[in-house]
Design goal:
Blueprint: H1 7-11, H2 15-29, E1 53-58, H3 67-84, E2 88-91, H4 106-116, E3 121-128, H5 134-148, E4 152-157, H6 175-190, E5 195-198, E6 204-207, E7 218-222, H7 227-235, E8 239-243, H8 249-265, E9 275-283, H9 290-314, H10 327-345, E10 346-349, H11 351-363, E11 368-374, H12 379-400
Parallel strand pairs: 1-2, 1-11, 2-3, 3-4, 4-7, 7-8, 8-9, 9-10, 9-11
Antiparallel strand pairs: 5-6
Region (Disordered): 23-50
Domain Luciferase-like: 69-367
Protein name: Siderophore biosynthesis protein
Length: 404
């Protein structure tokens, strides 16, 4: 299968339309590089050789599906992954859009998963902290820690979509600072300390939250291509949640190096820090079946994501007028996106055929694969992919000589 983007798909648009399409591509995928198979990541000071964990990630975008069906599939996959030994399950936070519609409350969904599982780690990917009061986050995730008996973790994000900030309009312009302030409050509260807030009449009120986690929860910072966010994660002694959507493997290796450097400069050990990489995934026992299976669902998924990006662009976030993007532009962009996902930005095939790519990711410093398995495929194919991911995990551990 060739993964090069056909020249005709963009050339046929004409000069003006092509320039607009290419600009939109740059804004969405500035760090992707060409959609061709990547060479192995070169060794760097940040590269690791440990066996990456294999986890599930959910972020469905099937706008016509019943949320009850989506939630049922998440619960079924979680139970299966728990039995098969996968390491964690991640669910996102999304608001006010059909893209990711089943996921406005990651803590609530993970509580349901906690009741149906016994060992798999439960994580948010991500909680947009500037939209929330840290007092309520501390309480909610304290309950989740109790229900799961210490299995919860949380990735924090500053947010990017302006419309989401109807929940807290004043935080938008300084959302990165608000995240750090909220993180400091969470750490204080989870460690048994108090914070002071203004009560009725301006009276200062000292508050502590309950229940508290029995141990300090694992916390990630969500980052894509911005090197400063990776440095912030290191300075704050956080793990990193990233994605292969907006970066090449080589670029991830460079940013892991910056992250480790920032950890060291801040006096934090790099050993034990996690870099989780989300990537669209479909594995099957017969890898020849995969491309035919995923083509239609991926096109629909990318189209839904483009609609979400258009809302962002309409708010001035990308400097693009979405009304100027024609159907021909969209088709060219979707064609480019599909080829990029199949070639470089996803994990498609079988446990055996995906081993080399996973090894490249591990060499780049990735310590956990967040495998996004539900992007519109039928239920039975999603479950098959979960089973094949368990085989991938076993194969990786056997190759490393680690216990299964």
């Amino acid at each position: 299968m060739t993964t090069d983007t056909p020249r005709s798909s963009l050339d046929a648009l004409g000069p003006e339309r092509r320039r607009l399409a290419e600009r939109l591509l740059r804004e969405r995928d500035r760090a992707n590089g060409p959609a061709t198979p990547e060479p192995a990541a070169p060794p760097t000071a940040a590269s690791g050789s440990s066996t990456p964990r294999v986890s599930l990630f959910f972020f469905s975008a099937d706008t016509d599906d019943d949320a009850r069906d989506k939630h049922a599939l998440v619960l079924e996959c979680a139970e299966l992954a728990d039995r098969l030994g996968l390491d964690a399950i991640w669910v996102p936070e999304r608001h006010f859009d059909p893209f990711g519609a089943p996921y406005p409350s990651p803590g609530l969904l993970l509580a349901a998963i906690a009741a149906r599982t016994s060992r798999i780690a439960l994580r948010s990917g991500s909680v947009v902290l500037p939209l929330r009061d840290p007092l309520l986050v501390a309480e909610e995730w304290g309950v989740l820690d109790s229900l799961s008996r210490g299995r919860m973790g949380i990735s924090l994000a500053s947010g990017w979509h302006a419309d989401d900030f109807v929940l807290n309009p004043g935080a938008y312009d300084r959302r990165k600072d608000v995240l750090e302030e909220g993180l400091a409050d969470l750490r204080t509260l989870w460690n048994g300390g108090s914070i002071t807030r203004e009560g009725p009449g301006g009276r200062p009120v000292e508050v502590r939250t309950y229940p508290r986690p029995e141990r300090t929860p694992e916390v990630w910072l969500t980052s894509s291509r911005n090197p400063d966010t990776w440095r912030t994660a290191g300075r704050l002694d956080l793990h990193v949640l990233t994605a292969l959507l907006e970066q090449t493997v080589d670029e991830i290796a460079e940013r892991v190096g910056l992250y480790h450097q920032a950890l060291t400069e801040a006096g934090h050990p790099a050993r034990g820090r996690q870099v989780t990489c989300m990537l669209h995934t479909h594995l099957a026992s017969e890898p020849a079946d995969v491309e035919e299976r995923v083509r239609g669902p991926l096109i629909r998924y990318l189209s839904a994501h483009m609609d979400l990006f258009s809302k962002y662009a309409a708010g001035g976030g990308a400097g693009i007028d979405p009304d100027e993007v024609t159907d021909a532009d969209r088709r060219a962009l979707l064609d480019h996106g599909l080829r990029r996902y199949m070639g470089t930005s996803g994990l498609f095939g079988s446990a055996a055929t995906c081993l080399p790519k996973v090894e490249r990711l591990a060499a780049a410093g990735i310590t956990e694969l967040g495998c996004l398995v539900d992007f519109g495929l039928p239920r039975e194919q999603v479950l098959e992919s979960v089973e094949e991911l368990a085989r991938l995990r076993v194969a990786l551990r056997e190759k490393a000589g680690a216990p299964k």
